[in-house]
Amino acid sequence: MLRILTIVLPLALWVWAFIDCLTTPEEEVKHLPKVVWVIIVLLFPLVGSIAWLAAGKRRGVRTAPAGGHGAGGPAHDRRRDGRPLAPDDDPEFLASLKKHDNEHEDMLKQWEADLRRRENELRGKEDPDEERRA
């Protein structure tokens, strides 16, 4: 059991540090360029992972985007690129949902009309056959 932990824990730490290093925006990387940190974490798994976690990334307080209103204001609810954090807070996204709903409603109406037309055609073809049999 102890052998497994000595293999799994450093491997998990290395994978986590590598993924964290790759997904961290360039603005949050400290001391070295991001590419150098990725190489360090890859070449020196244990030491590089610990170094990345200790000194490679700005942690803690998130800064508001430029032109923001500070914590709790509109900038607090937005990403760095100015987009809202949640899709349901984005008026453009909500408008696109309404547009898609309308498109789907129109498509459904067309399908229903086509189905009615086909049913009427089939009934029209079946009715004369039934009359001939009788």
**What quaternary form is this?**
single chain
Structural class: mainly alpha
Helix content: 55-70%
| Number of distinct beta strands | 0
Membrane topology: Multi-pass membrane protein
Organism: Kitasatospora putterlickiae
Main location: membrane
Keywords: Cell membrane, Membrane, Transmembrane, Transmembrane helix
Give a description of the structure.
This protein has four helices and no strands. Helices cover 65% and strands 0% of the residues. 6% of the residues are buried. The chain starts with a helix and ends with a helix. The chain is mainly α. It has helices at residues 2-23, 34-43, 45-56, 91-133. It is found in: Cell membrane. Residues 61-93 are annotated as: Disordered. Residues 12-56 form the Cardiolipin synthase N-terminal domain. Keywords: Cell membrane, Membrane, Transmembrane, Transmembrane helix. InterPro entries: CLS_N.
